Each structure stands twice: as structure tokens, then as C-alpha cells.
Amino acid sequence: MNRIWRHAAVAALGLSLAACGRAGTDRATTVGFAQIGSESGWRAAETKLAISAAQARGITLKVADGQQRQENQIKAIRSFIAQGVGAIFLAPVVSTGWDDVLAEAKAAKIPVVLLDRQITTQDPSLFLTAVAADNVHEGQVAGEWLVGKVGAKPCRVVELQGTVGSTLVADRKKGFDQAIAKTPDIKIVRTQSGEFTRAKGKEVMEGFIKAENAAGICAVYAHNDDMMIGAIQAMKAAGLKPGTEILTVSIDGVPDIFKAMADGEANATVELAPDMAARGFDVLAAYQKDGKAPPKFVQTPSKLYLPDTAAAEYARRKDLY
Amino acid sequence: MIASRNLPLLATLLVFVVGYALCVAQFPTMLSPRVLGDLLTDNAVLGVLAVGMAFVVISGGIDLSVGAVMGLTTVFVAVAVTRLGLHPLVAFALALMLGAAFGALVGAVIHYLQAPAFIVTLTAMFMARGLSFLLTTQAVPIDHPLYAKLMSLSLQLPGGGGLGIVALIMLLTFLAGGILLHATRFGAEVFAIGGDRRAAALMGAPVARATVLTYALSSFMAALAGVVMSLYTRAGYPLTGVGVELDAIAAVVIGGALLSGGVGTMFGALLGVLIQGLILSYINFDGTLSSWWTKIVIGALLFAFIGLQKALLTLPSLRSQTP
Question: Are residues A249 and A279 in the same domain?
Fold first, then answer.
């Protein structure tokens, strides 16, 4: 009898030790973040907020800048696995081609949280959850603002698309198209890729102005603020008045667009909240606490900002970016 | 006695060994078989490209089209498998043949029109990249059972990790490339053309054939890199491999090849690829450095190697002038 009790006690101790051990190693004290790159102000802010959110939680964050190349991001994930990090955050540059490397992470029991973008895969168990905005919804918010602003008047819209091939671009386009579909007089007359950059946005807008004779353009829809800032420069250089003669609406909510709105050169932006990593840490902490898998999609809000609050919003953000 | 022409290669070897030792000193896990396996697997695409680029650079030329040809191949394979329903192996074979034919055309233009390789391959780059966007602007996932089967093949290394199929393809490519470059008549012709084109022609080397074959080989390797990339990511994406041609050139030059042609080794090119991979691995392990340090370090290394080569070329002639 005595012996049985002793065995039971040892077994219990062993179990609790094992449990402690598990809790000790499973806690994400080190998180690897495979970031796309630093192509835009928004992306830089996301990285910066990720680092500060990690610091606030006592987490060591390893950031790998993928320089827009999937190979680099896969390399980074592999090296995170080799280092035995507690969790991996991935902002995928392209939606396909992650199955093999994420299967390796899964085999190593490292949870993967997708930030800001989704992936295409047959096996949703490869990632814990995706913290992202609904990009179709963003496009809708932008489109609905334009419909509300223009009303029943005819409006020829030019569109600056992001980098061709990403789901983000397809979704932001789709949402906007849906929103303006109800008003046949508002239509997109020209669309071209500005590759998410200011320089290219400016260049493409210059082309639009030449092709449409300036007076033919009623509004510009840009898939991100950076391209819109380039487009605003192009419009000003052509002697047009963006914000009054030509309406602008773009997505992201970077400081410079708030500055442009405060100066009366832009009309609206739909914010893509850059604090995705902080939400990712919260989801991860909850998961590690009770072991309950979160939903596969954690949607971040897409809020519309207008010139009335622009000056205050600019002051709040300018140090963040 | 070490021949002075082997010095750049030895310097490269030294850089790699010392670099790896420094990395391991700071992060002991970098010596694990898993990290070694990852280093080969994750740099397989660049490695395959570097094999073809080594031939081109040693022949005194340059090929800027390889990244675009690689991207086009991933898209071609993806479209052929998913939309046309071709078997992946058929798609691979077609892609490799088309790649070689494309390169042969490029080589023929360079030789017969006596056009600078830089411009001709730049043109080829634009055309290949444009063509891949014509096929699709989206990333096209491939979910053929053969892909899963091929990717599950791997040589398990002791202590976790393994050499996947893509790493094996790269190592075999280097082996075959090394034999072709250093032990065959074609290889000797490539060295001869790179050393002195006119002298090679006067001595009866088939310059036209060798030039066409060199570029065909380079494009073939680019297509093979595309196949490897398509296995690696199980998708075709028209933006794949933007700028990777410059990494391949850097790898070959760091590996001891002269951009003016006539000098270089296949082993050096492999080292050049691994050094680039090592730098990125270190940066990923560190986790606080900007990944762009890779480019800065590669730039500094290139500069150092060009300086070393220049010194090796000019010092002997200086010595012979001063009795």
C-alpha cells in the first residue's frame, strides 16, 4: 500500500514537472517575425509597433526583412525553426508556396500567426490564425465614401493599383468595384499598377492626366496612401487642385496622407491599423494560456478618416512612422 | 606552391570557413545539421543559377536574363500543369527545352550580330519578364500529387533536418557543371574564349558554337532554377527572381571568377552562393540587424575580391618590369 502511494506521488511529481517544463518551453518568450520588407511607411510602422509591443510584453522579437522576396522569407522561417523560437509571425509577400515550410514549423510545434495578409493553402492547420483587415471591406469603405460624396453625378475615376499579383490588390479592387457598382454613373475609366510606391504612383498619375485631359478625371482611388501622395504631386505639377477639383480616396492611413488632408489636398483615407503584431501577441498569449485555438481570422477594424480630424491624427502618428 | 591564379579561390574558401566559425562562435546552433541542410536547400535556386552564370562569366560574357527566365519558367510550369492539365514532368521537360532554345537564340544574336551581351540579355530579360505577366498576373498554386511526393523525398541528416530534393538537385548540378567546365573540351573552349576571343578563334576554337552553347546552358540552368523554385514554393509567380541575376553574378565573382573572362572555378561559385546564404542566416539568427546588411556585406566582399584580382593581375607584371 505504502509503495503504491509512493509510486503515485512520484508519478504525480513527474507529471507536474513535465507540465512545468512544457509551460516553460511553450511560452513564447522569443518570437520570430518574417516581415515582407520596408517598402512603405505603413510597413515600417508595422515593424516598429511590433518591436515596441514585444518589448512591452517582455518578448524578444527577431525581425527578418524579406526584401520583397519569398525565398528570403522562407529562409527566415527556417532559421527561426532552427533557433527554436516560441512562435513565428509571418507577413507573406505572396499568398502561395508556404505549405512546405509551414509544415516544418508545425512539425516543430511552433505556432504560426499570419499578419496582415492571408495565404492560399489546402491545410488550414498550418497556421494558428491570421490577424488581418478585410481588404474587400477596405475597398468597400473607400468606394462607399466616394458614392456618398458624389451622389448621382457622373464621375470618372482613375485607379492606382498596388503590385500586381497580390491578393491584397485583387481584394481592394473588388471591394471598391462592389461599392460603386450600384451607381452606374461612377465608373473606373483607367486602372494601372503604381506598385505601391510614391515614385511609380506619380509616374502613372502623370500618364492618366495626359491620357484623360485632366478635366476628364473626377476622382482618384489609390490602393495605398503612398501612391496617392505621388499622384497628388503629379496633379499639383499639372496645375490641378487635388482635394477640390479632383477627389482622392486611398487606403492605409499613413501620416503624410493626414498631412495632405489637413492641407486640403486629399479627401479621405481608410486606415489599415498597423498594430497587427500586438493583436497577434494577445491571440498567442490567450492560446498559450488555455490551449483553445482562436478563430482562423481575426479581423482588424477599417476606419474611414476625413479632413476634419486630419491635423490631430497627423500629430498622433508622425512619430510612429 | 600555390599558383597565384588559385589565390582568389583560396581567399573565398577562407572567408567562408572563418565566417562560418564566427557565426558558430556566436550562435552554436548554426553548426547543427538542420542549419547546414537549410543553407543548401534555401540557396538551391541561386546555386543552380550560379552554375550557368559561371560558364557565361568565364566566357567573358554576362547574362542578365536568368532571373526573368526563372520567373517565366515557374509561371509556365504552373499554367501548364493547372490550366492545360499537363503532367509536371512533361511541363518540366518542355520548360527546360524552351529555356535552352531561348538561350541559344540569345547566344546567336550576341555572336552573329556582335552585339554586347549586356544589351542582348537585358532585352531578353524584359521579354521573359513581360511574357510571364502575359501568362498570369496572379500567383498560381500547383497542387499536383507529384509535387508533394518529390518534396517529401529527402536525405535525412543525423540530428534533424535533411537534404531535400532541391538541395540534391543543386549539388548534382554543381557536380555536373564542374565536370563540364573543368574536364571537357567545351569547358576548355569556354576558358579560351574568355581569355582571348580572337586568339581562340585563330587557334581554331569553334567560337560561334561555344558562345551559343554557353548562353543556351545559362538559360537552361535558369529554367532548371525555375523548376526548382516551382518545387520549392509549389507555385508560379511572375515576380519570382527579380534581381536574382545580380546575386548569381556576385556569387560567381566572389567565387574567384574574373568578369573579364578566362578565369574561374565551379567550386568557387558554390562557395560564393554559400557565403551569401551564410550572411543572411546570420542576420536572421541575430534578428535585430536589417537584412539589407546582406547587400552591404556582399558589396564589400565583391569590392575586396575585385581589388584582390586586380592586384594579382598587375603585381606580377610590375615585378617583371623591375629587375
Answer: no
